[in-house]
Amino acid sequence: MSTDLMSADLMRSGLLRAGLPSFEQICDAAARIAPYATVTPVLRSARLDALVGAELHFKCENLQRGGAFKFRGACNAVWSLDDAQAARGVVTHSSGNHGNALAMAAATRGISAHVVVPEGAVRAKLEAIEQAGAVLHRCAPTQAAREAMAAEVQRQTGSELVHPYADARVMAGQGTLVLELMRQVEALDALITPVGGGGLASGCAIAAHGIDPALALFGAEPLGASDAAQSLARGARIEAFTADTICDGLRALIGEPNFEALRSHRTQVITVSDEETIAAMKLLWRELKQVVEVSSATVFAAVLKQREHFAGRRVGLVLTGGNVDLDALPW
After folding, report:
1. Which residues pair with 94 in a beta bridge?
2. Among 269, 270, 272, residue whose Cα is nearest residue 247
3. pLDDT at residue 6 tops 80
4. Which domains does the chain have, with CATH numbers?
5. Model pLDDT for residues 229-243, shown as the tens digit of each residue
6. Crossing angle of the two packed helices 256-264 and 168-184, in degrees rounded to 10
7. Looking at residue 276, what is its pLDDT?
8. How much of the chain, in percent, has pLDDT values that exceed 70?
9. Which in 33, 34, 142, 288 has the greatest CB count within 10 A?
10. In what order do the strands lie in the sheet with 160-161?
């Protein structure tokens, strides 16, 4: 066996030990969720292309069921359960979109869902979770409090934990959007996703390099929650930090397997300020006529900030969600 093949095999086995899905598992997830998930459109803007000097393809997961990409991962996790597991229901912790997605996915299978939500979560997102039929459990706005409450609910109910990002089933589901995007747009040169806990970024990295190992991968992260960028820079995962950003969907600490995926797939993370992200959010509304969450706008903010990485290239940008509280816009 060649050295390159041996290295590839070692990398794959290491990723699997770290709790990451394989490319084949992402393909299986695509078939599993096909009856339930929406094939989302890709939008273009000649004016935004000219502004950046690149060919931009916006994958609109804000138009996914539940208004966010999270439905993909939640749906795959729910339909991966055997009947005995499913009968006990599911539980997670979430600031909004993952909780809503899990509640909706549970409803497709007729099972119960429990969602632990931190105080201060976006009101529109909490209302969506309740409307989807989940039981809400409130906790303090810290990662430790979320994990502890979810564990307690799991102990009391026997529900299956579906972690919002450090779950191979969830990551596999999120990666399915790349399979779609790369069928919709031929010969992408680069792909950029937001980075929070890292479920999306890691699933997309595995899927993208399963199709094109040469594809350049980027992540966009708020300056006030730049643990992934700092972890990659130091070569080891930061284990504690306090987030300070308006991007509520990107405040989570990157998961251990997710960090390993970003490092293994050579993902370069670009940090952006809240002010840069809000400006990008406005531009996306003005030119694409899409209302996206501020967390989603980080990808366009990153491309605007470091245009030299993208100039002359065909770039896929993942707009992750559109669950915006119109009574509390960031401007």
Report:
1. none
2. 272
3. no
4. 3-69+167-319 (3.40.50.1100), 70-161 (3.40.50.1100)
5. 999 999 999 988 889
6. 40
7. 98
8. 95
9. 33
10. 135-139, 113-118, 90-93, 160-161
SS (HEC) of 42-89: EECCHHHHHHHCCEEEEEEHHHCHHHECHHHHHHHHHHHCCHHHHHCC
Tokens 């509640």 — which residue?
Answer: 103
Q: Is 268 helix (H, G, I), strand (E, B) or coil?
A: strand
For the residues of 103-172, what is the DSSP string, one character each?
A: HHHHHHHT--EEEEEETT--HHHHHHHHHTTPEEEEE-SSHHHHHHHHHHHHHHH-PEE--SSS-HHHHH
Q: Cα angle at 198 between 192 and 199, to 5 degrees? A: 100
Which two three-digit tokens encode residue 172? 């596999």
Type of residue found at 167: D
Least-confidence region, from 86-100, 209-223, 282-296: 86-100
Give the number of other Cβ atoms within 10 Å of residue 273's Cβ. 15
CB-side neighbour CA atoms (13 Å) of 305: 24
Q: Which two tokens stand for residue 154?
A: 């799991």
**CA within 13 Å, CB half, 154:** 15
